[in-house]
Structure formats: C-alpha cells, structure tokens
Design brief:
six-stranded mixed sheet, four-stranded antiparallel sheet, 25% strand, alpha+beta
C-alpha cells in the first residue's frame, strides 16, 4: 500500500520508498526523499523559487530509462503552481514552479533532476544570472576545470562581476555570476566573448566550440546555457549518476586547492555537513546586492 503523508497541509502519496535507485551505494528512494526534505530543502527552494523547472526523470535509477520534460508531468496536482512561459514559434506553454516544500516533495517522488533557466518566470528571457559550464574532455578532469574557473573568476572580476562555483554533479564545474537583469541574447554574447578569450589565453587547456574532435584533453567552456531556451542543473539537485552525486556549491579555496577529481565529488550524505559548515555558498546568486551590470 502506498503510504500517504501530509506536507504543509498537502496530502502526498510517496511510492516505492524501499526501491534502490543508486545500486553503487544502495541508496533508496526513501533516502532520496529524505535528502530533499531534511537536508536540501531550504537552500534548494531558494534557487528554484520563481524559475520554471525542467525535469530529467529517472524513475528506475540512473541505469534505467531517462526522459527530459519541460511540460508538467501527467497527474500534476492542481495545487502545484504552473507558469505560462514562451516556447518556440511565440507559443506559450506551462511549466512547473516549485515554490514550497509540498511541491518539492511531490516532484522528488517522481525521481528527478531539477533544471532551471537563467531567468525568472515573470521575466522570460531576461537573465539575472550567467553560467559557464566547464566540461572536461578525457583525459582532462575537473582539476583542469578548476584552472579554467580561476581564469574566468579573475577575468569576470576585471569587468566588475562576481563569480561563484559549483560542481556539475557529473564530471565538470559550473561558474555562476549574479547579474542585473539583461536580455539572454546580451548575456550569451558576452559569455561567448569570454569563452573565446579563454581559448586564446589558454590554448592548450580551453576550447570554446562543441566539436568533439577538438575536446580531448581540454575543457569545453560551454556558454550556450545562457540562451533563453536552455537550462542548467539547479544547485543541490541530485544527478542521475552511478552514485547520488549532488550539484554542490564549492568555495573558491576548494577550487584553488583541488589536485584530484575525487576532492570535488559530493554525495547526498555529504551535504548536511557542508551546509552546516559553509551555509549556502551560492546565496549571493539570490542577493540583489551582489548583482552587477554587464559591461
């Protein structure tokens, strides 16, 4: 029998709590839900707030079927907020907003990664943050990504912009920048400019084009996720990997000191201690006092 629980006055059916989702660690669906409810909720909800959510669903674990959706999943409760946002051909379509703990637990019960755009639901295509997705091509690793992240931090600082880092939860690193609102097209153009500069200054380390033949041993600086239609893994989301890795905020000191890829792999069980020690390292992204204008 599917257990029913009440979250903030909403009745939720939480299914298959004993199902092992991550065989490498034996992590069950119940433990995944506990992570979201007891560890990540406060920080994660702040980063999900007012941002249309795209879901990567993996209900049978990372080795099972995965499917990505922007549309509200079938059976979405009537009390889950839906935002009408632009899609292709000037059409509007609904996307879920995760605004409270009840909505978060409903979504987490579907077994999802949370992905969000760089803009908020009431200002589609007007970015309030910028992201660089640093993706290493083997044999390069996150260690090489750290070197590129430090170059970006200093280059952004030269333009008066503040930068913050998080792991992708996969093999790379994300560099994020809080912005005064600007069109996604402007942000994308500026991000591409910096990616090209990074390749020019670090030609043995960086590539700014997606062409796979160019990427072995280098870090691809992906600026494309600043396009209005693109999304990035939300801070604190679990990822569909062999282990329950988290897209985890990291301090610049950790990036500076990284000598091994394992040093920047964080699992769900690591996050309570990190939040207690550091708080939300990406809190500045949602602090309007940290936002700066594009140059």
């Amino acid at each position: 029998m599917t257990p029913i629980t009440e979250v903030e006055g909403r009745r939720l059916a939480l299914s298959n709590l004993d199902k092992v989702l991550y065989p490498a660690t034996g992590t069950t669906k119940g433990e995944v839900l506990h992570y979201y409810a007891a560890t990540a909720a406060g920080a994660l909800l702040a980063h999900l707030c007012n941002r249309p959510v795209s879901f990567l669903r993996y209900p049978d674990g990372p080795d099972g079927q995965r499917f990505f959706t922007k549309n509200p999943p079938p059976g979405t409760p009537s009390w889950v907020r839906i935002a009408e946002v632009p899609r292709r051909m000037a059409q509007q379509a609904g996307q879920v907003l995760i605004q409270d703990l009840a909505s978060l637990m409903w979504a987490a019960n579907l077994v999802v990664e949370f992905h969000t755009p760089q803009w908020q639901a009431d200002s589609p295509g007007i970015a309030d943050r910028m992201v660089f997705d640093l993706d290493p091509g083997a044999p390069a690793t996150v260690v090489e990504c750290c070197a590129v992240a430090l170059w970006l931090r200093d280059r952004l600082a030269a333009d008066g912009l503040l930068a913050y880092g998080k792991t992708s939860g996969s093999k790379g690193l994300h560099v994020l920048v809080p912005l005064e609102p600007a069109s996604s097209d402007r942000v994308s153009a500026y991000a591409k400019q910096l990616a090209v500069e990074a390749e020019r200054d670090l030609p043995e380390l960086v590539v700014h084009r997606m062409t796979r033949a160019l990427r072995p041993g280098k870090v691809f600086v992906d600026f494309s996720q600043n396009a209005a239609a693109k999304t990035t893994a939300t801070p604190y989301t679990l990822r569909a990997r062999a282990e329950p890795t988290v897209s985890a905020p990291v301090a610049w000191a950790e990036i500076e000191d990284c000598r091994s890829p394992a040093e920047l792999v964080f699992l769900a069980d690591d996050m309570a201690g990190r939040l207690e020690r550091y708080g939300d390292l990406l809190g500045p992204l949602i602090n309007p006092n940290r936002a700066r204008p594009l140059p």
